[in-house]
Amino acid sequence: MAEIELSAGTIDYQDTGGDGPTVVLAHGLGFDDSVWADVVSALRPDFRVLVPVLPLGSHRRPMRPDADLSAHGVARLLDEFMARLDLRDVTLVQNDTGTAQLLVGVRDERIARLVLTSCEALDNYPPGVQGRTLYAACRIPGGVFLLLQSFRFPFLARMQTSLGGMAKRRLPKELVARWYGPLLTNRHIRRDFTKFLRTTRKDCYLEAARNLTGFARPALVAWGAEDRMMPPATGRRLAELLPNARYVEIPDARTLVQLDNPAALTEEIRRFVKDNPLPGED
């Protein structure tokens, strides 16, 4: 993987290269680029696809101790990543963590098209039993460390009240180990992860929603039809706020739509880009 130094520290990223339209895929809390692997493979023949490994718990390089790793801080890092690589006319795709919404109306000059898949939005933060459990654990000394120990055991991680509730498909133990290995073995990664939980305000996505009504560029809200953590009702409300949005539900999918039904999500992204061409695009 390539790497780039940002203000908070050095992050890794994938870049398929190519001359096609630029797509940036943003993962959520406790995941890395591998969560997008099937979508990257499907899009790379016709798009330049980039996937930054954001400092959300599955990153391998700790950030600087003074880095702002709140949701707003991570959003700024996402924008800084696009700026440092001089990415323009980006189709920005977000899953799980609602980071991309925090750029709208603030740092959205590089975003030509916005895709929001099942993610935190409006008043759904912390989301579901998983989010509420993490939110409570981070406020107890040693709580996050103790909670993370369950991810040493795949059968516990796959429980519906844990990671397993975010996907309809059975999550491979290799992926669970990859995602949670850094948190289990590196106290500095746990520090970064806990900082996000402690410093992200509960109302940050409600506040961000005020800017969505002014985002007139094309938007696609593609929600997991069977999502329990991020209810489809939240997705529909989100789409209603965006003046140029289309709402679709991805069948047979929960929060991790890119794992549950990558073919359907990829098809929707392709259709969305084709239906909303930019000057110079075929």
Structural topology:
Blueprint: E1 2-6, E2 9-15, E3 22-26, H1 37-43, E4 48-52, H2 71-84, E5 90-96, E6 111-119, H3 128-137, H4 143-148, H5 154-157, H6 173-185, H7 187-199, H8 204-212, E7 219-224, H9 232-241, E8 245-250, H10 257-260, H11 262-275
Parallel strand pairs: 3-4, 3-5, 5-6, 6-7, 7-8
Antiparallel strand pairs: 1-2, 2-4
Strand runs, count = 8
The parts where pLDDT drops under 50 for at least 5 residues are none
Q: What series of H and E elements makes up the topology? A: EEEHEHEEHHHHHHEHEHH
Rg is 17 Å
* Largest sheet composition: 8 strands, mixed
Give the proportion of residues in helices: 25-40%
The separation of the N and C termini measures 30 Å
Into which percentage range does the β-strand content fall? 15-25%
Structure commentary:
The protein is of the alpha/beta class. The protein is 37% helix and 18% strand. The chain has 11 helices and 8 strands. The chain has helices at 37-43, 71-84, 128-137, 143-148, 154-157, 173-185, 187-199, 204-212, 232-241, 257-260, 262-275; strands spanning 2-6, 9-15, 22-26, 48-52, 90-96, 111-119, 219-224, 245-250. It has an 8-stranded mixed β-sheet with strand order 1-2-4-3-5-6-7-8, sandwiched between helices. Strand 1 and strand 2 (9-15) form a beta hairpin. The chain is globular and about 55 Å long. The protein starts with a strand and ends in a 7-residue tail after the last helix.
Key structural traits:
11 helices, alpha/beta, 8-stranded mixed sheet, 282 residues, globular
Summary of the model, kept short:
It is built from eleven helices and eight strands. The protein has helices at 37-43, 71-84, 128-137, 143-148, 154-157, 173-185, 187-199, 204-212, 232-241, 257-260, 262-275, and strands at residues 2-6, 9-15, 22-26, 48-52, 90-96, 111-119, 219-224, 245-250. The model has no long low-confidence stretch (mean pLDDT 94).
